[in-house]
Each structure stands twice: as structure tokens, then as C-alpha cells.
Amino acid sequence: MAENTVLNKKLMIVSLILAVLAVALFYLRDASQRKKYQGDVVQILQWRRDLGSGAEISELDTSPVDTKSSLMNLKDVVRNDNKSMVTGQNVIRRVYKGDPVYYNDFLETARGTPADKITPGLRGFTLRVDPNYTPGDMLRVGGRVDVLGMVRLKNKPEKTYTLVQNLRVLVIGGRGPRDDEPLMSKKGRRHDPGMRVYRSITVEVKPKLAEQLADLLPRVLGKVWLTVRNPSDAPKPKKGIYEDYMKGRAINPDVMSILNQPLPDKRMSPD
Hints:
5-stranded antiparallel beta sheet
């Protein structure tokens, strides 16, 4: 009788172990099936607000959101770990709050005329530069520059000023992004080889700023200098007469008075 009791206890223990194993296998299989049909959870970027074509993307314009890889094609969607390549770019089409961030929201993928690269409402303006004093291949199409020049204001000695700042570069030495070169490398970075020597660049400006520059440049003593900005170095907010200048929309108010002066005698100006 005692032997039967012991045997029954052993069978009960074995049954409990088998039951636990069965339940564990069931949950493992269920988790595997859910993963198979739902996919892994990944973090992608989505827009936090609506942006119009040409708007510059700040770090606060996007935010990460969890999604299942099986629910959408993630090939063209920007993941959160690539957020750094989005900030500082310009959107090339209108985007809407809550939509995923796609690479073709800010990277040109369609071929067209070179002028298609200009943000609607803006203009391409060409500046002559001294090839001996350019930043070389540090400057790339899509980069940002400040423009410096020496002027002689009324009743003041000649001095170098930052004439205009934070201008986006469209063309370097007559060459913009080439349509026969890949725009994206295997690492997801823009392919844009720089030029070492050039005599001109074309920048993107508002029509009013183009008129101001056309009036100002003949009054610059010699050629202009370029300084290259880090793409993430956004202008500091400033109200009043300097607001448009800080945002790259107007020339420096400190030199505006020179537009009312007659053109200088170029024979007396340094070349």
C-alpha cells in the first residue's frame, strides 16, 4: 500500500512537471507566433508639427515613436538612431504632424532641372570669391556660409563686417549636385564631393535680399570672404532691426547706411 502511495506521488510530480513544460512551450510558441506576425518593435521618427516646403528642420520638429516593423515598410522611414542627419536639413515638400519622417521629405530623389533645388519663393544669387581665400572642399552644396566684406562707412575708417549670414549654398564653382551621382551612399549619407578651387558660389536668398546684395557688393572694397557654419549652428534669436539679419533674410543693419552713399572709386579700392 505504501509502495502505491509513493508511486502515485511520483506520477503526480511527473505530471505537474509535464504540465508546467507544456504551458511554457505554449507561451513560447505563442510569443514566437506573435513576433512572426507582428514583427519587432522599432523606433521611428514622426513629425511633431506641420512644415511647409523649404522650412529648416530643428531638433524639436521630430520625435521618436514605437511601431511594429510588420505594420509598414520601413525602408524609406527614418529611424530614431538616424535623427542627427535630419536636423538642419530643409524639407522639400509639405509634411504634416503625426506622419512618419521619410528620407524623401528632405533629400532630393527625383531628377529635374538644377533650379528645382531652389526652395520655392527664394532665389539663387551668385557671389564672386577669391579662390585663394575660400574654405576649399570644406564647403559643400547644402552647407551654410556667412559673407564678410570690407566697406567704408561715412565718417568711419574702412572695416570688415559680416554682411549677411546663414545662407544655404546651392552651387559651388558652377557645379551643384550632379544627377548622375548617387544622392545617398550605402551608409545613408548624402554623396556630395567638394571642390577645392572655385571662383564663385551660388547661395539661396529672398528676392529682397538679392536686391540688397546687388546694391551692396559694388561698394565692397575688394572681394568677399566666406566663413563656413556648422549645419547645426542655428542663428541666435534676436528681435528688432537685427531679426531678419540673424535669420539670413537681410544684410547687416550696421552697413545698411552705405547703400545711400555713392559708389566708391574702384581705382582707390584694394583689389
